[in-house]
């Protein structure tokens, strides 16, 4: 009975978190892999469906490093397992203050000096900060560029009980602003196979097809611009996109996942980003962890949602209320570690608008803007 519950729990978690990029996956599926950032957890026994995205994380507005500033890639030490009420009102360390505005030209939001009393309060503050930031000047034909540091968990074996934590590795993606041009995905350790027997790209990247019919599962920046800015209407649309016949708990899980993806591996217009934070605050069961670290070792306050034996957490940057990254926190002892351990972290290093797929902000000859 316990084995069945563990398998069911992994299957539910896998339905929420996208699989890692693999050479044999189709270009369409790679286009949907935004959320890797939702920790790239995959169940080898029961694969994640190829189409199930918002979003995504990748589920995608992150704290871009203005000017292409490099981060020291230091793995965080994991969670402390604190519950929301244990540190309410405690002083929040200001040691990590990334250049907060994920959008170009934006002023820094006020520093978060104290941990909010609840996830709802934190999400409300994040929504207010997002609404005040100016929108990027984005042109059709350009690309959203996101570079992340990602990890993940893979389950293998006859019963899917053998868990392996994949090492941290960089991932870069270029997404067409209006969907009219092919995008590009480059993920270390996952070189893409060439088509029709032809050699793959020298950089190991996979060309992503144009997005003729953008949706919550495969959004473009132009699609995101048209989403409702009313939180109730937006949450309703997100729930409907997850499909009918879901239990309330499963529907809430999928909504949390989809919002996370939309906030992460994309650039999201400020009014929509604000509505996404407000929509997340309306999901029953969201929790707050006062201190959490992303894959780069940056600390923030985490908003979480429990799925099976794990809690998926979005780590919010204390200076500008942007998402720093995502991690999985274990709620019970298991093959990945002990209760309270943080595994499968991710972090966003750079978000920018560039002119061509393959352009990287800060490199000679690049025309991109961060």
UniProtKB/TrEMBL annotation:
<keyword id="KW-0812">Transmembrane</keyword>
<keyword id="KW-0472">Membrane</keyword>
<protein>
    <recommendedName>
        <fullName>CU044_5270 family protein</fullName>
    </recommendedName>
</protein>
<feature type="region of interest" description="Disordered">
    <location>
        <begin position="82"/>
        <end position="107"/>
    </location>
</feature>
<feature type="compositionally biased region" description="Low complexity">
    <location>
        <begin position="83"/>
        <end position="97"/>
    </location>
</feature>
<dbReference type="InterPro" id="IPR047789">
    <property type="entry name" value="CU044_5270-like"/>
</dbReference>
<feature type="region of interest" description="Disordered">
    <location>
        <begin position="1"/>
        <end position="22"/>
    </location>
</feature>
<feature type="transmembrane region" description="Helical">
    <location>
        <begin position="57"/>
        <end position="76"/>
    </location>
</feature>
<keyword id="KW-1133">Transmembrane helix</keyword>
<feature type="region of interest" description="Disordered">
    <location>
        <begin position="187"/>
        <end position="210"/>
    </location>
</feature>
<feature type="compositionally biased region" description="Basic and acidic residues">
    <location>
        <begin position="1"/>
        <end position="11"/>
    </location>
</feature>
């Amino acid at each position: 009975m316990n084995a069945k519950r563990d398998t069911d729990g992994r299957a539910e978690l896998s339905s929420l978190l996208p699989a890692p990029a693999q050479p044999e996956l189709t270009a369409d599926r790679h286009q949907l892999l935004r959320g890797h950032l939702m920790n790239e957890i995959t169940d080898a026994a029961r694969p994640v469906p190829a189409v199930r995205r918002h979003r995504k994380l990748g589920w995608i507005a992150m704290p871009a490093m203005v000017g292409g500033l490099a981060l020291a890639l230091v793995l965080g030490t994991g969670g402390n397992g604190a519950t929301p009420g244990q540190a309410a009102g405690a002083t929040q360390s200001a040691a990590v203050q990334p250049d907060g505005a994920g959008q170009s030209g934006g002023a820094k939001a006020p520093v978060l000096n104290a941990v909010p009393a609840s996830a709802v309060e934190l999400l409300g503050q994040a929504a207010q900060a997002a609404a005040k930031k100016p929108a990027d000047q984005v042109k059709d034909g350009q690309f959203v560029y996101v570079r992340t540091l990602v990890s993940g968990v893979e389950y293998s074996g006859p019963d899917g009980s053998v868990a392996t934590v994949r090492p941290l590795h960089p991932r870069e993606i270029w997404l067409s602003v209006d969907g009219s041009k092919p995008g590009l995905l480059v993920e270390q350790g996952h070189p893409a196979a060439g088509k029709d027997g032809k050699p793959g790209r020298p950089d190991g990247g996979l060309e992503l097809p144009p997005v003729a019919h953008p949706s919550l599962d495969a959004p473009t920046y132009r699609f995101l611009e048209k989403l409702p800015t009313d939180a109730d209407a937006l949450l309703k649309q997100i729930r409907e996109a997850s499909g009918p016949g879901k239990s309330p708990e499963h529907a809430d899980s999928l909504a949390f996942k989809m919002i996370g993806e939309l906030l992460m591996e994309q650039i999201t217009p400020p009014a929509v980003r604000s509505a996404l934070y407000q929509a997340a605050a309306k999901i029953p069961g969201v929790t707050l962890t006062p201190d959490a670290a992303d894959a780069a070792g940056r600390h923030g306050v985490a908003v979480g949602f429990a799925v099976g034996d794990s809690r998926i957490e979005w780590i919010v940057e204390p200076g500008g209320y942007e998402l720093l990254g995502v991690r999985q926190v274990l709620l019970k002892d298991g093959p990945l570690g002990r209760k309270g351990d943080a595994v499968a972290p991710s972090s966003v290093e750079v978000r920018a608008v560039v002119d061509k797929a393959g352009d990287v902000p800060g490199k000679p000859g690049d025309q991109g803007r961060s």
